[in-house]
């Protein structure tokens, strides 16, 4: 595994991040994901190839549309750079094994899309859970040599989510998790090793506290989306030694 592998991973990550930014904008608004050309959200002008180069287009145009001059949100280059970093970390964790890394990279794009949508709209779309599930199952199948641990983990994750949802509501009268969070835990169960169910909620809890504090400090109220904390915790666990095919293959 050389520097060229990491450069390729970063390049693929920028492309994946561009896709994630587009889907995270279109999906919650009910816009077509693949049929329509990308266009400026201010003037509606179709974007050409030079407008779609990840990060570089936004930087060269100083964050403005080349057609109408309207400001283009920083969300686009930020998502692209974050996804590129995720791809590099995945390849590093998998020690250059491209097949399992590719599966995790696809999952990373889906998780990035889900996190952005939850931050902006407070929902985790079912379509993204459905999209992530086959790739998550394929990855664990490679890891374990059988699909059953993943399927059992998914059932356990979903059951844990329901227990938290209704248990918290029974005690406080309020729902502590969203329905999308519960379904996400089923997807997490496809990916996590049994022993990681100790670290996963602890990391998610800390990330949730930080997210909540930042959310309140920004004046957005008391209630905040917990999905990004769950997603971040899952990604951290997937990078831990022993969970990856790269670590087990040596």
TrEMBL record:
Its main location: membrane. Pfam families: A24_N_bact, Peptidase_A24. One of its GO terms (cellular component) is plasma membrane. GO terms for biological process: methylation; signal peptide processing. InterPro entries: Peptidase_A24A_bac (IPR014032), Prepilin_IV_endopep_pep (IPR000045), Prepilin_pept_A24_N (IPR010627), Prepilin_peptidase/N-MTase (IPR050882). It catalyses: Typically cleaves a -Gly-|-Phe- bond to release an N-terminal, basic peptide of 5-8 residues from type IV prepilin, and then N-methylates the new N-terminal amino group, the methyl donor being S-adenosyl-L-methionine. The chain crosses the membrane at residues 72-92, 98-117, 148-168, 197-217, 229-248. Its EC number is 2.1.1.-, 3.4.23.43. The keyword Cell membrane applies. It is a multi-pass membrane protein. GO terms for molecular function: aspartic-type endopeptidase activity; methyltransferase activity. Residues 105-213 form the Prepilin type IV endopeptidase peptidase domain. Gene3D superfamilies: 1.20.120.1220. The keyword Transferase applies. Keywords: Cell inner membrane, Cell membrane, Hydrolase, Membrane, Methyltransferase, Multifunctional enzyme, Protease, Transferase, Transmembrane, Transmembrane helix. Residues 11-92 form the Prepilin peptidase A24 N-terminal domain. It is found in: Cell inner membrane; Cell membrane. Belongs to the peptidase A24 family. Plays an essential role in type IV pili and type II pseudopili formation by proteolytically removing the leader sequence from substrate proteins and subsequently monomethylating the alpha-amino group of the newly exposed N-terminal phenylalanine. This is Prepilin leader peptidase/N-methyltransferase.
């Amino acid at each position: 595994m050389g520097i060229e592998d990491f450069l390729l991973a970063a390049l693929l990550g920028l492309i994946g991040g561009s896709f994630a930014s587009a889907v995270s904008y279109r999906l919650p608004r009910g816009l077509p994901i693949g049929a329509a050309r990308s266009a400026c959200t201010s003037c509606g002008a179709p974007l050409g190839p030079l407008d779609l180069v990840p990060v570089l287009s936004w930087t060269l145009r100083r964050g403005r549309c080349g057609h109408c001059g309207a400001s283009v949100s920083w969300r686009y280059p930020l998502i692209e750079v974050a996804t590129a970093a995720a791809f590099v970390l995945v390849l590093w964790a998998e020690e250059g094994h491209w097949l399992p890394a590719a599966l995790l990279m696809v999952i990373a794009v889906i998780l990035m899309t889900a996190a952005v949508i939850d931050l902006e709209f407070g929902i985790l779309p079912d379509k993204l859970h459905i999209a992530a599930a086959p790739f998550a199952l394929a990855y664990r199948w490679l890891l374990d040599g059988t699909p059953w641990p993943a399927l059992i983990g998914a059932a356990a994750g979903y059951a844990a989510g329901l227990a938290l949802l209704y248990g918290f509501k029974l005690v406080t009268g309020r729902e502590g998790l969203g329905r999308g969070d519960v379904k996400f835990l089923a997807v997490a169960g496809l990916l996590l090793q049994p022993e990681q169910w100790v670290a996963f909620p602890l990391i998610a809890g800390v990330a949730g506290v930080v997210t909540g504090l930042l959310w309140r400090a920004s004046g957005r109220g008391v209630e905040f989306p917990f999905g990004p904390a769950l997603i971040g915790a899952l990604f951290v666990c997937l990078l831990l030694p022993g969970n990856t095919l790269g670590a087990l293959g040596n």
